[in-house]
């Protein structure tokens, strides 16, 4: 998978969980985090910091509540 495909997915969906990305691209969470890190450094997406603070039941997988969001780049 190319970073451009991942970026295009964000352009279409705006806000995506890591679990959704795993299902769509069929890639391991750690491998995706590496690619997401590159897009974060480029300023294309951001990790949503408040995603880890849900109701507190602790029954969800980390990937299900780890969200990333497209950053609208204005030129």
Automatic annotation (TrEMBL):
* Segments forming domain Transcriptional regulator HTH-type FeoC: 2-69
Q: Which domain of life is it from?
A: Bacteria
This chain's protein is named Sugar metabolism transcriptional regulator
Organism of origin is Mastigocoleus testarum BC008
């Amino acid at each position: 998978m190319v970073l451009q495909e991942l970026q295009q997915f964000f352009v279409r969906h705006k806000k995506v969980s890591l679990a959704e990305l795993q299902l769509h691209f069929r890639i391991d969470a750690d491998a995706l985090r590496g690619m997401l890190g590159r897009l974060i450094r480029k300023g294309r997406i951001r990790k949503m910091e408040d995603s880890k603070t849900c109701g507190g039941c602790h029954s969800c997988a980390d990937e299900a509540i780890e969200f990333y969001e497209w950053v609208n780049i204005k030129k």
